[in-house]
Specification:
By secondary structure, the protein is an alpha/beta fold. It folds into 2 domains: 6-198, 2-enoyl-CoA Hydratase, Chain A, domain 1 (Alpha-Beta Complex), CATH 3.90.226; 202-264, Lyase 2-enoyl-coa Hydratase, Chain  A, domain 2, CATH 1.10.12. The chain has helices at residues 31-46, 68-72, 76-82, 109-116, 143-151, 153-160, 168-174, 186-198, 202-213, 220-234, 238-248, 255-264, and strands at residues 6-10, 15-20, 52-57, 98-102, 105-107, 119-123, 127-129, 165-167, 179-181. The strands form 2 sheets. The protein has a 6-stranded mixed beta sheet with strand order 1-2-3-4-6-9, with helices on both faces. It has a 3-stranded mixed beta sheet with strand order 5-7-8. Helix 9 packs antiparallel against helix 10. The longest helix has 16 residues, at 31-46. The protein is globular.
């Protein structure tokens, strides 16, 4: 049996599954795991056959946070030298859609992974939070920056300053997750969604994602200009020709053929 903290499964439907595989440790995030995640994400971003990434975890929990045994042995100098964050911040620059499926705990660095994801599907038993303050530290991979942008400042500080946890339905109400599904259906629902997304135009999704993510660093006027320029450019792309032709011809679009044609050229 492989001892790797991360597994991958790549299907012919364009969906690559990135799987946290330390269930015996509640998938606690250690450096080996986050390094492996970053390596696979880089490969997926460059692989035209991968259109969507489904991030999920083995066992009863998504991840219980950073591995405190590893963290406790890290000195200040080592943390600075390694630029250590305790989570997989390589997700930030990933261009393709990431669907994250969460069951059980998603705490600390795992909650930061949720905050970096594009679409989050939560099992109704999922639990979210930032308990770092309760062990005398703080988030290091964006928890204090992304969480307020997602749920608002007062709600974010309610979690960050107290370390309290919220359930899946409260996380949905706050906007931290996209959907909550019944127990036992998480994997099937996440795979169904990822498969549907993989049939859509990947290059257009990448532009949409970049434009939406830019709202964190642009004014409204700047963002509107960025969006308008990208929209105009999309009208010259093969995906628009295929999509509009399919709509007018009352047939399903074949966006994969567009991507294949671009690769060949």
């Amino acid at each position: 049996m492989s001892s790797s903290p991360v597994r991958i499964e790549v299907g012919g439907d364009g969906v690559a599954e990135l799987i946290l595989a330390r269930p015996q440790s509640r998938n606690a995030l250690n450096r080996a795991m986050t390094d492996e995640m970053a390596r696979h994400l880089k490969a997926f971003d460059e692989d035209p056959a991968v259109r969507v990434v489904l991030l999920r975890a083995d066992g009863d929990h998504f991840a219980a946070g950073a591995d405190l045994k590893e963290l406790a042995g890290l000195t200040f100098e080592q943390a600075v030298q390694m630029d250590f964050t305790g989570s997989c911040d390589a997700m930030e620059g990933f261009r393709k859609p990431i669907v994250t499926a969460v069951q059980g705990y998603a705490l600390g660095g795992a909650c930061e992974i949720v905050e970096m994801s594009d679409i989050v599907i939560a099992d109704e038993n999922a639990v979210f939070g930032h308990p770092e303050v309760r062990v005398g530290t703080m988030p290091g991979a964006g928890g204090t920056q992304r969480l307020p942008r997602i749920v608002g400042m007062t709600r974010a500080l309610d979690l960050l300053l107290t370390g309290r946890q919220i359930d899946a339905h409260e996380a949905l109400d706050w906007g931290l997750v996209s959907r909550v599904v019944a127990a036992g259906t998480l994997l099937s629902e996440a795979r169904r969604l990822a498969g549907e997304m993989a049939a859509l135009p990947t290059r257009v999704q990448a532009v949409i994602k970049a434009a939406a993510r830019a709202t964190a660093r642009t004014t409204l006027d700047e963002g509107l200009r960025l969006e308008r320029d990208a929209f105009h450019a999309s009208l010259a792309a093969p995906e628009w020709l295929e999509g509009s032709s399919a709509f007018l011809g009352r047939r399903p679009p074949n966006f994969r053929a567009c991507a294949d044609a671009v690769q060949e050229n």
